[in-house]
Write a structure and sequence with these properties.
GTPase IMAP family member 8-like protein; about 0% strand; about 100 residues; single chain; mainly alpha
């Protein structure tokens, strides 16, 4: 009976060792999966932040470009308005000269 008990105990010990081995292996696997997931999430977040920063810079540049364009447009309109006023003024002067000439 002692031999059977020893074999049974040995078998049980081996079974527990295998079970512990697989539990440890499973835990290592879970930790590795968790670590990979965290790394993936970190990379994903970094990529998102990078894209957001690029988008922000692009929008700021577009806004500066539009502001610059609008400023040039306003300047051009003022210049054209001054030219128009100058032409009208010269035209009025010419009209007045003509009126003076025709009066005399």
């Amino acid at each position: 009976m002692n031999k059977i008990e020893n074999e049974k105990q040995s078998h049980e010990t081996d079974r527990k060792k295998r079970e512990n081995y697989f539990k440890e292996r499973e835990e290592r696997y879970k930790r590795e999966i968790k670590r990979e997931r965290e790394e993936w999430d970190k990379q994903k977040l970094q990529e998102k932040m990078r894209r957001e920063e690029e988008d922000k810079k692009r929008r700021e540049k577009e806004q500066r470009d539009w502001d610059e364009f609008n400023q040039r447009l306003k300047q051009e309109r003022r210049r054209m308005e001054r030219e128009k006023e100058d032409i009208q003024s010269k035209h009025e002067e010419e009209e007045n000269k003509m009126k003076m000439i025709w009066r005399d």
